[in-house]
Amino acid sequence: MAASLTVVIAVNPMASFGHRAEVGPRVIERVRAEGHTVVDMREANIELLRRETRRALEAGADALVVVGGDGMVNLGVNLVAQTGTPLGIVPSGTGNDVADGLGIPVGDTEAAIDLLLDALQSPPRVIDAGVVRHGGLSTWFCGVVSAGFDATVNERANRMTWPRGRSRYIVALLRELATLRPIPYEVVADGVPLETKALLISVANNRSLGGGMRIVPHAVLDDGMLDLFVVSAMSRLHFLRVFPRVFSGTHTDLPQVSFRAVKTVSLNAPGVIAYADGERIGPLPVEISVVPGALRMLA
Predict the structure, then answer these.
(1) Contacts of 161 (CB under 8 A, 6+ apart)
(2) Which of 70, 77, 204, 219 is deepest in the core (most CB within 10 A)?
């Protein structure tokens, strides 16, 4: 008989704008049916959910499971990084890039729960995490830090209520194209100073962001490195022509695109807001570093 565990399950009440509200109760039902003790965390807002989930973990738990998108994954990562508590994901959000990168089924709730239940009885997968240091604070991330045009698009997309899903990011991108311009960055990558004018800079642990944009298709979650992704200046028309290639990951050979494996990187530029896993960090400058093996994942 499988060992009984105490599992904290935190559910985002507004994942996919509340249109997949049935996923959380289904996860709780099936985990309980396997004989595990469930600590059901469903709160009115994210801040309350974060606080109460932290209390539940401090009271003692064998695992944390988050139900939602990359924002919920980021919440979970910031609660369990370097604690040894494994983190599970049942994707039900607008963007589910971390789940996809881990091989968790996206868009098939029952298959995702099946994988979770198997993983609860298996050794967790150990992966890296990143840390963003900003204004005296530190924030963990699992996926991607955006600090350019992609972050501007994210900021607009987060304010939009229509459309839903991946298309929301595309609409936001098209609206932001009107102000597309290269930004002068000061970058220090593993101690090497770089000055560049770029449209987009990201620092990736995972391969994709924004609901399937495979910006660094070769990224590996457990290689002890991050990937610095830079898109240099090009015209709006050229950008529109090449942008669809990001979804298939076939943009990597473009002359305006560069990649660099890094352990630490600092970014500074005027008027740029950084995002991590789709969550707002704040204005540059930021310092980003990899912490190998910081996360134990149920995947």
Answers:
(1) 17
(2) 70
| pLDDT, position 166 | 62
Sequence length of the chain is 299
Distance from CA of residue 182 to its chain's centroid? 25
Beta strands in 190-236 (DSSP E): 192-204, 226-232
260 phi, psi to nearest 5 deg: -145, 125
Burial grade of 157 (CB within 10 A; 0-12, 13-18, 19 or more) = buried
For residue 25, the SS3 value is helix
Tokens of 72: 């919920």
The pTM assigned to this predicted structure is 0.90
Tokens in use for 18?
Answer: 């509340």
Options 2.60.200.40, 3.40.50.300, 3.40.50.970, 2.60.40.420; CATH for 132-293 is: 2.60.200.40
Tell me what pLDDT residue 2 has. Answer: 65
Question: Are residues 194 and 205 in contact, defined by beta-carbon separation less than 8 angstroms?
Answer: no
| Residues 6+ away with beta carbon under 8 Å from 285 | 134, 186, 266, 267, 268
* Prior bond of 285 cis (ω within 30°): yes
Q: Helix or strand or coil: residue 9?
A: strand
Q: Which two tokens stand for residue 251?
A: 């943009």
Q: Residue 71 and residue 101: Cα distance in Å, rounded?
A: 15
User: What span, in angstroms and rounded, lies between the C-alpha atoms of 195 and 107?
Assistant: 41
Q: Residue 83: is its pLDDT beyond 80?
A: yes
| 71 vs 13: CA distance, rounded Å | 12
Query: What are residue 69's DSSP bridge partners?
Result: none
- pLDDT (mean) for 184-198: 94
Question: CATH assignment of 6-122?
Answer: 3.40.50.10330
The answer to whether residues 215 and 231 touch, using CB atoms and an 8 Å cutoff, is no
